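Wed. Picked up where I left off yesterday with Probable multidrug resistance protein NorM. The coffee machine is broken again, so keeping this brief.
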Amino acid sequence: MIKDLTSGNETKVMLRFAIPMIIGNLFQQLYNVADTIIVGQFIGAGALAAVGSSYTLMVFLTSIILGLCMGSGVVVSMFFGAGKKDKLKSSVFTSFWFIALITIIINVFALVFIDEILHFIQIPAEVLYDTKKYLQIIFYGIPATFIYNYFATMLRSIGNSVMPLIFLIISAVINIVLDIIFVVPLSMGISGAALATIIAQGFSAVSIAIYSFRKVPEIRLERKHLHFESSIVKLIANYSLLSSIQQSIMNFGILMIQGLVNSFGVSTMAAFAAAVKIDSFAYMPVQDFGNAFSTFIAQNKGAEKQQRIRNGIHSAIKIITISCITISILVVVFAKPLMSIFIKGNETEIIGIGVQYLYIEASFYCLIGYLFMFYGLYRGFGKGSMSIVLTIASLGTRVALAYVLSSVPSIGVLGIWWSIPIGWALADIIGYYKIKKDKII
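Structure written out below (tokens, as returned):
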């Protein structure tokens, strides 16, 4: 188990640290993917569309929480790399209660304004009931999402990426088993899928919190750490708020795309729901590598090892290029069988739309891989504002083009699909220009 990322071969250190994170988040994706597969196969296309729209909305709502956790993790990584143990522990106390308060506000907002939210994302009338019923249960899992991701981020920030993986694997298995039991023999429908998810989330949250406090001395707090230090509050706010804003902007753009997709009807919604799950699995490795890269950068910044940071950037580019080309080929070749996992083979229209989406997106996975690297780089350097610039460039382009192109009758939904890689490309150009200008590489 690696904790110190400031020594050893850069490529090997980053990969050994990132691989457990990648495996862990692949299992985390199983929470919603298990719902999607079981709902699509045993309930139908309407329920699949409802779960897909719910997933996009949940990602947006929790993106604020995840951004705050990621920003706090950078601060902890810097203190860990600099050997400042008391500062590290004080930052854990401060960030936990700060993010907990935000989580409560988000949870109350989601439950109170659920009808207004569903109207905003243009849920069609034929799936409105199922979507609302699913979300009313899922929203109660938001606190568990915060607790798991907070402690997982803290553990990863000090180089422990293995234990979050273990808890995720167990909870993902729980989720899948309960999904099958609730939906198939018990016939609980879409409510059963939602209930299975929040039970599994609750297990992972409680388990990782208990482990962190009992087994990890680096973040085990003493009485002297239970106070708010103004300098640490400012530092955490600087990193966390910018990360949160970046995550929120990114996922708000995706939510707007979901609303546009919804306007094309249930078949397009169902296809998009399945294809996005495949997308999420496909580029999840490079997304998590970007998060691991952020920890690598932050620790080496704290240790003031500039040349090691440069070497790490070059290694990261090679890793991402090879990984994305391999994944792109696999997704394009197996696009139709992958879609058939989520929806019955006789739903030819839905499968055709999903395959069309995957052919376009999968061909450009390298672009989003480099974008995740830039996010990790700037987050690790504490330049969260640059991540926001890249997100606005990517998402702004994507949303604007999607709405303009899809309004042309001869282009239609294809305009939504093509707008995505174009947005990635623009953000990559800006990110590369910036690191060359600042002579980071």
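Quick read: The chain has one domain: 10-437.
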